[in-house]
Structures are given as structure tokens and as C-alpha cells.
Amino acid sequence: MKLESSLLLTLVAACTGGSTPVIPSNCSPFVPANAEHTTAMAVSALAGDYQLIQVPTQPRGAKTIEGKLHLQPRDTGTNPSKPSPTVLIGWFEPVGGDSAWRAIVGSRDPKRPGAILRAQQLRIGMNMPLDGYGYGLRITAVDSTGFWGWWVVEPGLSVPVSLHGERVPPEGAGYFCALRIASEP
What we know:
Radius of gyration: 17 Å
Number of helices: 2
Distance between the termini: 38 Å
Helix content: 10-25%
């Protein structure tokens, strides 16, 4: 495990130009030893409230994104007493950001939720990748305290270009952790 950890830090440092990346103290690129593959836990078991931390590894100098994520079973519409066990919906309350983005990701409308989780893929933002901007979070490990994985900005069909018409590199990618928030008694 130590060899894998040092190898990953070496790769991260190499990708960031040799400098050691700043890692938030409560979210590292390493998962707890007791974490399991995502198939070990039913999607429905991930319902709840989380502190979501997205740590960028590209582009250099990007800011960490933090906030509260809420996930709940989606009502299938056909039988309100039987919510979908394979899909969770919810919203994200980021710390900071512009008000238009906070409105999109904070949407509690079940038809256009701010967050949707299917299998191992969590989407935050516009709920269809082709509709527009959002974050795609790929869950790679889970346990009773939360879930971890990798994220990437998904700009939808748009292709970012500079003022001179040149393509702009991807907007961002990195790793994340979603740490379960203890419910109030």
C-alpha cells in the first residue's frame, strides 16, 4: 500500500509540474483501507447528506470545490410508495460560486434535480450531459462513512475556444470524497 501511495503522489506531482499538490486535510486521493468496490453497496444505501470535496489535479491552480450534497431515492412516478432503488436524486449546496450555478446545482425539482446518481456515476449540474455544463463524478470506492472517486468537468456540446479561436484545454478534473454527515438526533 505504501508503494502505491508514493507512486500516486509521484504521478500527481509529475502532472502538476513537480510541485507537491496541496491536499485538503479531510480529503486525500487515498481511500480508507476498509472501503470496498462500488458494487459492494446498493445505490440506495448512499442516500443521505455528505460534505463533498472536489480536489482539482488539473488545471494547475484551480480551486477546491466544497459544499453539502444531499441524495435521496427518486420517486418513479408510477408508484409513489416505491421509490427507485437504483437512482438517487438530490442537490448540491456549494460554498461560493455564482448565483446562477448555485441555482442549477441546488435545484430540488425532482424533474430537474441538481444532482443525480445512477450506478457509479454522479452528475452535478445540468442533468443531461448534452444539455450543458456539469461535473461527472465516477465513484470508485464506498464504505459506511462515504464514497470516493474521480471527477471531470463536462461542458456538454459546447467546445470552449479562446478569443483567437483556439481550443481551450479541458476545464478541470481531479479526485473527490463525499463524507457522510451525521444526522441530527
